[in-house]
Design goal:
By secondary structure, the protein is of the alpha/beta class. The protein has one domain: Alpha/Beta hydrolase fold, catalytic domain (Rossmann fold, 3-Layer(aba) Sandwich), CATH 3.40.50.1820.
Length: about 290
């Protein structure tokens, strides 16, 4: 791992680092927070970037060490190193574990929060390697997402597509523009290659939710399609230690932008030790 201020296990606010994936791909990582604070790792959805978590980071960084990274093929992380194969769930899972191992010190664990592709990466990584570093998990919209990405050939069209097809009716006015900027900041068609890799993926069938043996919570937008909400409930039902499904009223698929407070509250609720309530479905305001 290479880094700026703070070194490989630095705790300086705003530290930017590079973690090398198993195939040599350099993963761009940011760390916000202070020495000794509980750690949180944030993994974003396809066609977005670590920037989608900015409001969540602002909420949590005062009393947590917050780690966010760009998935391969997005923003400051290239699609893959020379000679590496196309991405898949196994790649996403390995990248997530690589970032955890690079950023945490010996014996440290983190609450994991994943959105879309990031949630699938957590589920796919479930097993001994991940559980050595994970203390809890928050899974936002843990399905493969729409078969086609809302990527237009120019940002105004992409902004319109996000507003009409992805975001909920009460999304902040700037949300669609922010999504469009992140989508067009992708590198080398990486977001499109992820769309191909995730086509037909089922979060329960194709990952390992039964092995994610840590306190967990599932969030989904109340304005997401019926299939996405059903998929979230199926994931919650397959998790061994789940606090239930929270449907965030009026929100679409981009919960870190549309309802950052709900996401941050879920992280805080799982950060302390203790077993959450039995699986249950409930609704929550954004």
């Amino acid at each position: 791992m290479t880094g700026g201020a703070g070194g490989p296990h630095g705790r300086d606010r705003g530290c930017e680092l590079t973690a090398l994936a198993a195939d040599g791909t350099p993963l761009h990582v940011e760390m916000h927070g202070a020495e000794g604070a509980p750690a949180v790792l944030l993994a974003h959805d396809r066609a977005l970037s670590a920037r989608v978590w900015d409001a969540v980071v602002a909420d949590l960084a005062a009393d947590h060490l917050v780690i966010a990274y760009d998935q391969r093929g997005h923003a400051r992380t290239p699609p893959r190193a020379a000679g590496a194969g196309p991405p898949g769930l196994a790649t996403a899972a390995d990248d997530l574990c690589t970032v955890l191992e690079a950023c945490l010190g010996p014996g440290e664990r983190a609450v994991l929060a994943g959105h879309g592709l990031g949630a699938l990466a957590i589920l796919a990584a479930a097993g001994p390697r991940l559980l050595r570093r994970a203390s809890a998990a928050v899974l936002c919209s843990p399905d493969g997402g729409p078969a086609r990405l809302p990527l237009g050939v120019w940002p105004p069209l992409t902004r319109w597509l996000f507003r009409r097809r992805v975001l909920g009716p009460y999304a902040p006015g700037a949300a669609a523009g922010a999504c469009a900027r992140m989508a067009h900041d992708g590198r080398g068609g990486g977001a499109r290659s992820w769309a191909a890799a995730l086509r037909g993926v089922d979060a329960v069938r194709d990952t390992a939710p039964g092995r994610l043996d840590v306190p967990s919570a599932v969030l989904v937008g109340g304005a997401e399609p019926v299939a996405a909400r059903a998929g979230a409930r199926a994931v919650a039902g397959a998790l061994p230690w789940c606090a239930g499904v929270t449907e965030v009223g009026g929100a679409g698929r981009v919960l870190p932008l549309e309802a950052p407070g709900a996401v941050a509250r879920s992280v805080r609720a799982l950060a302390p030790a203790g077993r959450p309530a039995p699986t249950q479905n409930r609704r929550s305001p954004a």
